[in-house]
Amino acid sequence: FLLLFKFLLLFFFFPFLFSTTHTHSHTMSLEAEIPPGSKISRKQMDELRDIFRSFDTNGSGFISRSEFKSAINKVHFRGEDDVEAIAMEMVERVDANDDGHVSFQEFVNGVAYKTNEDGESTAKFRSLVNVMRTYGFSNAKTKTKKPTYIQQYGCWPPPVFLLIITIAEVIVYAVYSARECGGDANLECPISFSSELAFRTGCREEVWRFITYILVHASVQHIVFNCILQIIVGVPLEMVHGPHRVLGVYLLGGIAGSLASSVFDVYANLVGASAAVYALAGAHVADTFLNWAEMPFRYLRACVLFVLIGADLSISIYNRYYSDSEQNVSYTGHLAGFLMGCTLGTVILKNLEGNKYEKIVGYVGIAIAVGGIIFAVFFNIFYDYPFNTCPKL
Asked: What is the pTM of this model?
């Protein structure tokens, strides 16, 4: 049952696979020759395409008289005196083939030359184009399109951290299994609990153990499921927020797990990356909070996160204290890792559109996380533990 919930949790964290949002381009391709004798550059041609499209509101590839009228009204060109006459004049001055509308080539020619083929001035047309250019630039600054969460997914920088840490954990497990258990491992190597990397409160003076325990696992099943979970839960976070942010969440989650166990579960003997994986799950909660408006399926995502993580944690507690099973799952480490991901995740992860209340929540998260760490450190220094033995392999 626990594994079923974990697999449901796995497939949940790839929202971009289920998104029905697609980007299509319906804009007609605009091509034109640079007018002979003009000084228009390729970059300016690209800018003229954008200006042309601001006139061509229906995307037909031509500017009609009614579209000239709309542009004149939009920018209040020349006080909008006799808009119909101005629009007609625009078309007549630059419509070289007299078909009643202006193509992109005719538009470019009208900008490049001060007069048309009949010697008539195009000054008024060029003035309108310049006003539309300024209007479009101003609008672009004040009406920037909000980024969507789906658009943040990318492979650069490549999401390599979770792959590297997973490979490292597999190598460490293989080395310990071969060295200490050999052919008698039978898919389990419980002696890893006494390795020089595992965490137990009696060995807390060896401070590296507060983090290195995440590299050691007790069985094939243990490492396989942790590795699968952290890749599928963590890689989507890396694709949006980058490896360095996920690295911070992962390591801090691991440290939180060992510190919490040393305070609330002093007899625990920790191995495995579960606390760090739960920190990644907690980071998804923080991510959902920070980027709620930009995130697809936000309500479904929030509900599934609450139900699955709550169920998984409840089952862990039941197995630890009420079941006859010999499993000794450190729910304290899981919960601490999860809370670390939730709190510091609001500061470490990207916020696509920051709001004041989100910053306040971030400060509160820092205070909770840092306060908890400081308390646990002082507890480890001054608390008189009932034992101080540190078994060695």
From this structure: 0.65
